[in-house]
Amino acid sequence: MRGELPAEVPAQPGARKPDPVLVIDSITRSFGGVRAVDVTHLEFQRGWITGLIGPNGAGKTTLFNLLTGFDRPDTGHWTFDGMPLSRLAPHQVARRGVVRTFQLTKALAKLTVLDNMRLATPKQTGERFFGALLGTWGRQEQANTRKAMELLTRFQLDSKADDLAGCLSGGQRKLLEMARALMMDPAVVMLDEPMAGVNPALTESLLQHVKSLRDDGMTVVFVEHDMDVIRNISDWVVVMAQGRVIAEGRSEALSSNRAVVDAYLGSHHDQVLEFDADGNPVGQTAKLVAEIESELEAAIERGQDLSA
Amino acid sequence: MIDIASLLANGIAALVGPSAIFFALLAIGLNIHFGYGGLLNFGQIGFALVGGYGMGIAVLNFGLPLWAGVLVGIVAGMVLALLLGIPTLRLRADYLAIVTIAAAEILRLITRSTSMTDFSGGTQGLTGYGGSFRQLSPFDNGHFYDFFGVRFLGQDLWAICVGWTVVGLSLTLVFLLVRSPWGRVLKAIREDEDAVRALGKNVFVYKMQALVLGGVFGAVGGIVFALTTQSLTPDFYSPPQTFFAYAALIIGGAGRVFGPVIGSMIFWFVLSITDNFLRQATAGSNPLISFIDNQDVGAIRFVLVGVALAVLMAFRPQGIFGKRSEVLLDAR
Questions:
Q1: pTM over 0.90
Q2: What pLDDT, on a 0 to 100 scale, did the predictor assign at position A55?
Q3: What is the mean pLDDT of chain A?
Q4: What does the domain layout of chain B look like in residue ranges?
Q5: Alpha carbon of A238: minimum distance to chain B alpha carbons (Å)
Q6: Based on the domain organization, do A88 and A134 belong to the same domain?
Q7: Residue A1 confidence class, pLDDT cut points 50, 70, 90
Q8: What range does the domain containing A119 cover?
Q9: Cα–Cα distance, A112 to B138 (Å, whole number)
Q10: Which CATH number covers residue A235?
């Protein structure tokens, strides 16, 4: 099942969506002289799974950090459901319904899996200093425990409920982080590389869980640098490179997009390579080889590490 | 020969004595800071100082009754926590450690400075603020009370009873807090602040509440000790005291409700036993241990406590009460 894809959404950077939930305008963030993020306009459609892809260093995670308040932009503003979301602290962003996960999973290791879940419940009486002392939070805690167990069952973690979260495997931590985010009943779930470091057997199950978030009416934005992972589940794909949005569209259309392929593979990728009978490069290929070799030599002279 | 009966009697007196109470209260505060909240407060003794001196100065200089002086001491602990927390709690944990240890030393140096003699008593310190505390005592202040060979002066027995009542109330408060969702948020902050922010909790507010609460325990410790000794001397509030409290916390087990109290009792029991043993063994014309001078005992007992602490960390890194499974997670 896919989200509705109205034909009128043009596949171009900054395209208008019929019902955007997040709207971003002229957001920039520089680290020293490097423009890590420089996005003029970007909209995320409500109820879609939007994949945010791009090669390493494209600014995907920085954009995530900016949108969720974990980093401050140099310029720019953005809205969630029409409400301004810029310049809010991370916890304020989360309370408004935009909840993120992290690339390096942040399971709270010395809390049990169940406590990890219950922690995430918003507006607990026992969470306030004097509320905790009054001792009237028991009933609320029971309800939260029930909800937590339901979610843990859905993510196949119910048997681990009383284990310390630090004992979970990498993939289980990803599942826990996703389940924990759902305790907050978010409107938008932002997943930072949910498949990173997960074994292939679990990837499929994780993808199904991401799809199920959309089926429950949530908007999902997720970062990934592996295009194959994104192809199956995203309704829409935004491609970033060097801090900018270079392309948008449906995933099938993007693999033939010149800008995208260049960003991933470099601009020489489609050149037909020519060799003579002895296997030596000739013509354009010989020129290319000479270029690469002189670049390598220059790099060695500068003392760069070629293994990187 | 070694008099084992007097060794044990002195050891048990130290186990429940005023020092054990004082360091138990300091360590209860540190347990909230470090054990549950992950906040590195290296200036807990500064909170004891503002507690004790707050009370003493309020009574002596401003003529307040003792109960009001106690309140002033507690409020002074809160104010110190706020002052230290506002600039540092948004930064990394190590900044709080630097600022707290510096603040505790600044406070000690100010109270002992001669220019403050009229206000804080300077190096001579303060006395005469706690007379009404002893008047409340149901015991005969000058009389020795004997419990199976363990002897306490009446005035100390009164202070010990009050002290352990305060420790009991503090533990009850800590117990109620750490089993609640509030305590869960605090433990989560210790694990990973950013994860807790991403779950919609205002981390700064929780850290500040923890800093104030732990600081109040430190101030209460200072007040109880100042009422026990009936005198305030600035150089008692020196940096090593904070680390004795940390030692007590780690022996007992950080992040466990009873850890700091049991740790403090063991710390003073071991210190008393080694002290008495060494003094007896090095005294007289034909000492049992001839290579240690009687004068060096005071320093060597701390060496032995250090060795004991190192052995404990090797075989029981979680402390007496800690959960081994939690500590093992750090080794992964």
A1: no
A2: 81
A3: 85
A4: 4-236
A5: 24
A6: no
A7: very low
A8: 114-167
A9: 48
A10: 3.40.50.300
Angle value at C-alpha B63, between B62 and B64, nearest 5 degrees: 95
Pair type for strands A34-45 and A20-31:
antiparallel
Tens digits of residue pLDDT in B251-279 = 999 899 999 999 999 999 989 988 888 88
DSSP B38-99: ----S-HHHHHHHHHHHHHHHHHHH---HHHHHHHHHHHHHHHHHHHHHHHTTS-HHHHHHH
Is it the case that residue B34 has pLDDT exceeding 90? yes
How many angstroms separate the CA of residue B26 from the nearest CA in chain A? 21
Report yes or no: B187 at the A interface, CB cutoff 8 Å.
yes
Chain B hits for A120, Cβ within 8 Å: 199-200
The answer to whether A137 contacts B180, with C-beta atoms less than 8 Å apart, is yes
Segment B205-242, tens digit of pLDDT: 999 999 999 999 999 999 999 999 999 999 999 999 99
Are B181 and A111 inside 8 Å of each other by CB? no
Q: What is the pLDDT of residues A3-54, one digit of tens each?
A: 455 556 777 788 888 889 999 999 999 988 888 999 999 999 999 999 998 8
Tell me how many domains chain A contains. Answer: 3
A90 at B interface, C-beta within 8 A: yes
A174 with A125, same domain: the answer is: no
Whether chain A has a CB inside 8 Å of the CB on B63: the answer is: no
Are A174 and A212 contained in the same domain? yes
What residues contact B318, with CB distance under 8 A and at least 6 apart? Answer: B253, B324, B326, B327
Of A152, A167, A182, which one is at a domain's C-terminal end? A167
A13 domain-assigned: no
Helix (H), strand (E) at residue A24 = strand A20-31
Say yes or no: A299 and A193 in one domain.
no
Across the interface, which of A89, A120, A131 has its CB nearest the CB of B199? A120
Does a structural domain hold residue A45? yes
